[in-house]
Amino acid sequence: MVLLNTYEDRDEAEKAEILISGDKRLASERDGTELIYNLFGQASRVTYIS
């Protein structure tokens, strides 16, 4: 797994996690006094639908 993105907002991170298929993991950590969320998963080709 690789780091796909970092989020400052938990809700935003959880929404992004739902969009990813396959193995994934959302991990939180403290960066000074702030809590950040790292989204890990398998990098693959992305198709955007507008």
Average pLDDT works out at 88
The radius of gyration is 12 Å
Please mark out the parts with pLDDT under 50 across 5 or more consecutive residues, or reply none: none
Structural class: alpha+beta
Shape: elongated
Distance between the termini: 27 Å
**Percent range for helical residues?**
10-25%
Number of domain units: 1
- Major beta sheet summary: 3 strands, antiparallel
The number of strands is 3
Strand order of the largest sheet: 1-3-2
Number of helices: 1
Strand content: 35-45%
What sequence of helices (H) and strands (E) makes up the elements?
A: EHEE
Walk me through this protein's architecture.
The protein is of the alpha+beta class. The protein has one domain (2-41). The protein is 18% helix and 44% strand. It has one helix and three strands; from the N terminus they run βαββ. The chain has one helix at residues 10-18, and strands at 2-7, 24-31, 34-41. The termini are far apart.
Can you summarize this structure?
The chain is an alpha+beta fold and 50 residues long.
What attributes does this structure have?
about 50 residues, alpha+beta, three-stranded antiparallel sheet, 1 helix, about 20% helix, about 45% strand
